[in-house]
Design a protein that fits this description.
The protein contains 16 helices and 16 strands. By secondary structure, the chain is α/β, with parallel strands linked by helices. The radius of gyration is 27 Å and the shape is elongated. Bound molecules: manganese (II) ion.
Length: 494
């Protein structure tokens, strides 16, 4: 039987402490429900002491009847626990500083006083039917003998778990392993670990702790958290599973979707090269790799994208190989001869060499021109007018010619670009698509810079990327949309 690891998610507490992130009670509830469906065993919903709004969020989550246990963060103060009790949580994440640095300079207290408070408050939680996870703040820089003393005392007071926090991300896997072994030898209750990424070691340290006897991991979606963030749930879960075969209740095929949701709601972008959930985690460009993948995916993929709910993508650029070009031309429902393919390949390489990203729409245009297919522009922009400024609601009107007939629409938006996009959306309401990504790059410096707009449109199962370039950001955005829509409509008419 595989050893079971308990997953406690703290996206809604430590993750929300990411600089610049603040979630409404409704947003917190949305993420909590998604975490519950993901299969986390417990979630820290917030710190009840923080604010009225925070308590409202925690209450909503506690009332939802989730399978996961709902915890509130509390300092070693009775008032923090009382406020959490008012929110009807299942448990308390009781954070007790244990390093002399924290005890002396932050609390102005002593080890004896901290120990006394922890014992009392664990008892107080138990009397009120609360679970309690005692977390040693700055545990990694605490004297191991004192950690053991706290461990033994809270075991006696009937704490449920003892969590070692590497609060400032000071450890490396070897040092984490040494410390956890000391605790594991004596522990009668499960040990947890809470790691930060200040040295880029959070995932490695969490895995090392589990290998040395920890049975619970504190993690966040996308590795959100204070400063450099916390250990990321998706990395820890996949590392424990693929490298060691530990079992967890997490349904890994939901990882991509929840990562997207948290990115959207918090506004903190996931770097493209982020493990497991980054945009490039299953994207291949180099010809040698694509060739290998097409023969056997394991050649260049450690885990299959389906396992984490992601999709494999091939992109075109200067490292592209003939096999990817062939496959992508086939995906356009075009039948090119070997000679035509060779010419398409040459032109894609040429574009890639100039540092340009080659989108689907570019490939379609190249293939169309090489194969002598008439490029039907089924949708064309005739007129665009936008109004913006501090006295106006941003408004745009467009005149499009769609399949030969004129369509005029107008819309408002958060800014002129958004208004123009909304107007196009209204004018093309019969075309099935949604805008899933919008990206701006300034190609040159200065306020007269050329901008390149990349949009990603989703139409049924297909993702279409297209771009527009120019000095006018609104016009370039509209061009990118119209280019993508032409590709969708050409497909529909084929
Ligand atoms: Mn933390």
């Amino acid at each position: 039987m595989a050893t079971k690891i308990f997953v406690l998610d703290t996206t809604l507490r430590d993750g929300e402490q990411t600089p610049g992130v603040s979630l409404s009670p409704e947003q917190k509830l949305g993420i909590a429900k998604a975490l519950d469906e993901l299969g986390v065993d417990a979630l820290e919903a917030g710190a009840a002491i923080t604010s009225e709004g925070e308590r409202e969020g925690i209450k909503k989550i506690a009332k939802e009847g989730l399978k996961a246990d709902v915890y509130s963060f509390a300092r070693i103060l009775k008032q923090d626990i009382d406020l959490a009790l008012d929110c009807d949580v299942d448990g308390i994440f009781l954070v007790a500083p244990t390093s002399d640095l924290h005890i002396k300079y932050k609390l102005g207290s002593s080890r004896e006083a901290v120990l006394k408070s922890v014992i009392e408050l664990v008892g107080y939680c138990r009397q009120h039917g609360l679970k309690v996870d005692v977390c040693c703040e700055d545990g990694s820089r605490s004297e191991p003998a004192f950690l053991l003393k706290v461990l033994k005392a809270v075991e006696q007071a009937k704490a449920d778990r003892f969590t070692l926090a590497d609060t400032v991300g000071a450890l490396t896997p070897g040092r984490m392993s040494d410390l956890v072994k000391v605790l594991a030898k004596k522990a009668k209750i499960p040990l947890g670990v809470h790691c930060h990424d200040d040295l880029g070691m959070a995932t490695a340290n969490t895995v090392a702790a589990v290998r040395s006897g920890a049975r619970a991991v504190d993690v966040t979606i996308n590795g959100l958290g204070e400063r450099a963030g916390n250990a990321s749930l998706e990395e820890v879960v996949m590392a424990l599973k693929t490298s060691y075969g530990y079992s967890m209740n997490v349904k890994t095929e939901r990882l991509s979707a929840i990562s997207d949701m948290v990115e959207r709601v918090t506004g903190v972008p996931v770097p493209p090269n982020k493990a497991i959930v980054g945009e490039n985690a299953f994207t291949h460009e180099a010809g040698i790799h694509v060739d290998g993948i097409l023969k056997k995916p394991e050649t260049y993929e450690l885990i299959s994208p389906e396992l984490v709910g992601a999709r494999r993508r091939f992109v075109l650029g200067k490292h592209v190989g003939m096999k990817s070009v062939k496959k992508m031309v086939e995906e356009l429902d075009l039948k090119a001869t070997d000679g035509q393919l060779a010419e398409i390949f040459k032109q894609v390489k040429f574009m890639g060499d100039k540092g340009k990203r080659v989108t689907n729409v570019d490939l379609e245009a190249i293939a169309g021109q090489v194969m002598g297919i008439e490029q039907k522009r089924l949708i064309r922009l005739e007129e665009l007018v936008t109004v913006a400024g501090n006295k106006f609601t941003p408004t745009a009107s467009v005149k499009l010619v769609i399949n030969g007939s004129e369509v005029v629409e107008s819309a408002t938006g958060t800014g002129p670009v958004d208004a123009a996009m909304n107007a196009i959306r209204k004018a093309t309401k019969d075309v099935p698509f949604e805008l899933v990504e919008y990206h701006v790059d300034a190609i040159s410096g200065g306020s007269d810079a050329l901008v390149r707009i990349m949009v990603k449109l989703k139409s049924k199962d297909r993702i279409i990327t297209s771009q527009g370039t120019g000095a006018d950001i609104i016009l370039a955005s509209v061009d990118a949309m119209v280019n993508g829509l032409n590709s969708i409509m050409a497909r529909m008419s084929r």
